[in-house]
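Entry 12.
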Amino acid sequence: MNFTGVNQTDECPPYTCPERSLSPALYVFLYVCAAAVVLLTVCGNLLIIISVCHFKQLHTPTNMLVLSLAVSDLLVGVFVMPAALIWMIESCWVFSAVYCLCFISVSLFLTTTSIYNVALIAVDRYFALSNPFLYTGTVSVSAMAVMVLSNWSILLVYNTALQYLNGFYSQVLCLGQGFLVLDEVWSLVDLLITFGVPCSVIIILYLLVFVIARKHAAAIRDLTVQTQAQAAAASMKSERKAAKVLGILVSVFLACLFPYFVCSVLVNVIELEVETFQKVLLLVYLNSTVNPVIYALCYPWFRKCVKLTLTLQIFNTDSALMNVL
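Predicted 3D structure (tokens):
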């Protein structure tokens, strides 16, 4: 994954930002919209984190992955989006070179982590639907927590090594002089690891989940005993709804990331304008804003948890044991 990089030293010629061509009213409006997006991203994902952590009913293996995704999205809203939106509005990097290096490193790590969180969610849903009894007996909350921590650790090592091996921490790049890109080999390797493999897993498993869900629906229709049909229908309906919501989540996720990775490939072939790269980056970051909105629209338990949190009922005695499902 390739970002712009800067390192301002004596070897760089003087560089100043171009004058703004926006009217003051539009300038203020853009900053208000940027602040609203950042606030929605931070607050929305913070509500997901509070809900999953506080309410005992939500302590499930799948929700550990949802929690991991919300944490990565929250960190994007706190550490990445403010600087990125200011960069886009000003059409110029107004912060220091050191901050730019930190911004790039954090952006790479969090974006990759989000991709693999969604891939793990796809694996979890497929396993839960295809082998429900084995899933219940083998996948625990603690085991999923270990998997999440391992995912974060491995990706941190990978992104650090990728940047180091490509001279990210030693190469001198100057303000206004374009992109820091990987060479052709590393670009292909990174594209496969951070996008090709996980996204292939996501797409294939969700197609299989869709097939399994249809088989479950057919099985329910074939049941002849009414009591058995009702019990089976309730369980399978719950699993299918979870798969449907996460399918929407994945579809939006892929739609937001695909343009960025197309540009990552093209940047080694043709020269791309900074504005083009900024637009596709904005799509990637906005995915962190959209995820809580999807939960709010599709999950009644999330809306109920938000209501309990905003009304401060979570501070009541034994509120963690409340029924939110």
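Annotation: The chain has a mean pLDDT of 79. The first helix runs from residue 24 to 54.
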